[in-house]
Specification:
The protein is mostly helical. The chain contains 6 helices and no strands.
Length: about 130
């Protein structure tokens, strides 16, 4: 129980960090990025960048039924939005796909996670 609470708290801290970066349109500094990458890898079992090429259906089926699955999906969603922000304009298709997938996952979470989040709703409305 304590381990699960700790993992949920870590996921929430990372989500807040990434959300603030997206909202403020700022890049994470090297230390923040390293911490984000390391912690996300530990929580998800893979680097968030490796999830870029997965469809939303694959992500949902892989993570939704796992322990803390909805929190993991939220971490993935904000990661995709962060990667979308960091993707150069010349890669418009990738940028658009990452943004659409991130928003889709956030909307999925609002509907299916069992908890409503103002932060999620704000991001959806701001980015859509």
């Amino acid at each position: 129980m304590i381990k699960q609470d700790y993992i949920i708290r870590m996921i929430q801290e990372i989500i807040s960090l990434v959300t603030n970066a997206i909202i403020k349109k700022k890049e994470l500094d090297k230390k923040e990025l390293d911490t984000y990458e390391y912690t996300s890898h530990e929580i998800l079992g893979t680097s968030p960048r490796e999830l870029i090429n997965m469809s939303t259906d694959e992500l949902i089926s892989q993570y939704s039924d796992s322990e803390n699955g909805m929190e993991k999906l939220e971490l993935i969603a904000v990661s995709l939005l962060l990667f979308s922000e960091e993707t150069p304009e010349k890669e418009l298709l990738l940028k658009s796909r990452l943004k659409q997938n991130g928003i889709f996952l956030l909307k999925y979470l609002q509907k299916h996670s069992g908890s409503y989040s103002l932060q999620r709703e704000f991001i959806i409305n701001m980015i859509s």
